[in-house]
């Protein structure tokens, strides 16, 4: 099944000069024994519930393991499962660590220990991409962006034993070259039962919208790529066969799966034929069309995660969230609810335009529209984004452990920090108290969303402003 080409065409991909697939395969065949890689998903040190309980399977690291495993031996450690990186790393040649901002300090400690033992240390992921100079102090090499597009160069240099400080692709590979992820790397873990039953899947990469607080444009530029529909559907059927049942629950990891409506709608039409269930992050820019919500429901969509962000039009304008139109909010919610689709709604607080009224407006919207799973966060300027550059002089600290969107970063212009946190805690307690849950969830299917509300009820009862400092 063919689809039209993306707006940004990525063609004639080739490795950098001096590298080739032929040379890589030649070097690989000359190995007396396969080099050993240790791939690490670090746990975060945040005080909030980020890496506790059930966690999602780390699709990006699984994809790395799938590529690396073609030429090298791979050991896969996910610290969120309770596993730990051994102190003695003598059994490995390469230590590769993925990192986002909230676990960067942990990733750096692992990298430093491996460097002291003379290992090749590779740091990748969002944070090393955004702050490669900082990350380079804790590793041999930084992978900027995705590993797939620089794999030939990286693997060749590992085999030669001569590493470059940064690996950054001049062009990005088409997603048609993406291998189907080998989930056995994660599923064979001792504590694999801690993984969510939702199977992560990827259909597209990138988001050209360019919100100024988002890291995606830095990693992928303005590119928007997608896999051929046949490959996505084949992967879904593979998991159906692997698990021996049709009703598999998939979670799309795409930044903006709906950016190309024709591709998205065709994918949903095909998914409707194979009987899966799914959820995804989605932009609301065309969810006000009833036919989109109808097709999403018919294709097995259980939940969509939507960044409402704010009920303040000035705030939406300031963060360049052009896809959000306040006048469409209630229509979008109604269209999804009419088709049996639950909503995970994201709301951010601490913008300069926020006032105490912002909290009341958000509470009223959530309760009136019966948003099933509201998620609240504090505005966090992440390094490498335009918003960070704008706010850097005002942020209270650069303690990466607290860059989890649940810690107080700066004082907004129209409210004191104390009032911000006081209202932030009050809103969460009000939304997740028993009576509010019953009002929002009355008549809804008895499923995992009810359970999440129950857990949030217990969690928010313990909250106080001090949690967020």
UniProtKB/TrEMBL annotation:
One of its GO terms (molecular function) is 4 iron, 4 sulfur cluster binding. Gene3D superfamilies: Cobalamin-binding domain (3.40.50.280), tm_1862 like domain (3.80.30.20). It holds the Pfam family Radical_SAM. Residues 191-413 form the Radical SAM core domain. InterPro entries: Bacteriochlorophyll_C12_MT, BchE-like, Elp3/MiaA/NifB-like_rSAM, Methyltransferase_Class_B, rSAM, rSAM_horseshoe, rSAM_sf. Keywords: Iron, Iron-sulfur, Metal-binding, Methyltransferase, S-adenosyl-L-methionine, Transferase. One of its GO terms (cellular component) is cytosol. Transmembrane segments: none annotated. Its cofactor is [4Fe-4S] cluster. This is Radical SAM protein. It comes from Chlorobium limicola.
């Amino acid at each position: 099944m063919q689809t039209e080409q993306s707006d940004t065409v990525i063609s004639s991909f080739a490795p950098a000069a001096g590298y080739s697939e032929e040379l890589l395969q030649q070097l690989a065949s000359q190995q007396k024994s396969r080099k050993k890689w240790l791939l690490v998903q670090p746990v975060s040190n945040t005080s909030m519930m980020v890496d506790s309980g059930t966690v999602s399977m780390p699709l990006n690291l699984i994809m790395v393991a799938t590529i690396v495993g073609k030429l090298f031996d791979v050991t896969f450690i996910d610290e969120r499962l309770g596993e730990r990186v051994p102190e003695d790393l003598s059994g490995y040649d390469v230590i590769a660590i993925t990192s986002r901002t909230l676990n960067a300090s942990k990733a750096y400690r692992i990298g430093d220990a491996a460097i002291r033992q003379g290992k090749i240390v590779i740091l990748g992921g969002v944070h090393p991409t955004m702050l490669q100079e900082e990350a380079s102090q804790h590793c041999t090499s930084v992978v900027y962006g995705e590993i797939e597009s620089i794999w030939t160069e990286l693997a060749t240099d590992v085999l030669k034993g001569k590493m470059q400080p940064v690996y950054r692709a001049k062009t990005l590979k088409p997603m048609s070259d993406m291998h189907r992820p080998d989930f056995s790397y994660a599923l064979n873990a001792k504590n694999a039962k801690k993984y969510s039953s939702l199977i992560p899947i990827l259909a597209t990469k990138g988001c050209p919208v360019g919100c100024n607080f988002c890291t995606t444009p830095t990693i992928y530029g303005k590119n928007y790529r997608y896999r051929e529909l046949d490959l996505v559907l084949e992967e879904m059927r593979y998991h159906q066969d692997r698990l021996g049942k049709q009703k598999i629950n998939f979670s799309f990891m795409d930044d903006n799966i709906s950016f190309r409506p024709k591709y998205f709608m065709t994918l949903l039409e095909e998914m409707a034929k194979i009987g899966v269930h799914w959820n995804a992050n989605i932009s609301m820019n065309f969810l006000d069309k009833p036919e989109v919500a109808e097709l999403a429901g018919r294709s097995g969509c259980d939940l969509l995660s939507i960044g409402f962000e704010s009920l303040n039009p000035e705030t939406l304008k300031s963060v360049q969230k052009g896809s959000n139109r306040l006048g469409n909010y209630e229509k979008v919610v109604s269209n999804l609810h009419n088709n049996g689709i639950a909503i995970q709604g994201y709301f951010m607080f601490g913008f300069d335009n926020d006032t105490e009224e912002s909290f009341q407006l958000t509470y009223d919207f959530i309760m009136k529209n019966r948003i099933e799973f509201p998620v609240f966060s504090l505005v966090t300027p992440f390094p490498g984004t335009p918003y960070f550059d704008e706010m850097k002089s005002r942020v209270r600290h650069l303690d990466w452990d607290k860059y989890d969107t649940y810690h107080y970063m700066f004082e907004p212009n129209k409210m004191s920090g104390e009032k911000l946190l006081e209202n932030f805690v009050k809103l969460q307690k009000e939304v997740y108290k028993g009576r509010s849950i019953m009002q929002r969830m009355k008549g809804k299917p008895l499923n995992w969303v009810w359970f999440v509300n129950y857990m949030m009820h217990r969690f928010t009862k313990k909250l106080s402003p001090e949690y967020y400092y």
